[in-house]
Design a protein that fits this description.
VanZ-like; mainly alpha
Amino acid sequence: MSFNGIMHLLLHTMAVAAVLFALWAAVRLWVLLNRRKKGAAPIKKFTEILLWVLVFYLICLYQITAFRYGIRFDLWREKSSLLDGVNLTPFVHTIKLYFAHTKWYFIYNLLGNILWFVPLGALLPAVLKKRPGFWFCLLMGALCSLSIELLQYIFVTGISDIDDIIFNTAGTAIGYLLYKLVIKLCVKKKVTIDNYK
């Protein structure tokens, strides 16, 4: 995909995500108002903000990966077999991209798949009440990536590649480590996420 193609895809993703996020925001505000009426314990403002960021990020993530071309079933007719468009052998596609005539697609595939999942690894432990550990976040990253690959396969919106799951999971791990680094720095300064109310 060219740079212009990526920019067009990003703008389209943001437009669709804005609509879906607005719908979620309306429901979330209704839930918060009901909580206040019932006298429930107040929600920490900073954690709530991070939740909103996480939801917007997830909407963008699924829109740009699984639903970027909409929902189409007609492309199934072009499949020669059930495994057409599926790569289950690790790093075969990545190596092919590396030895291609241009390194742009290799860099886009490698860094893109890693960077897209860094926010998940960082936001997930910050939002959940019971701070999850490294392996839980890694599992969530792998399952999220797997769900995207399955949706891409069902709606024929991309190649379902095992490399994507590997790189996505690596991105989640990096995000979690960045989260732990921030927490460690905050502890030194006697600041925690739970201080923000």
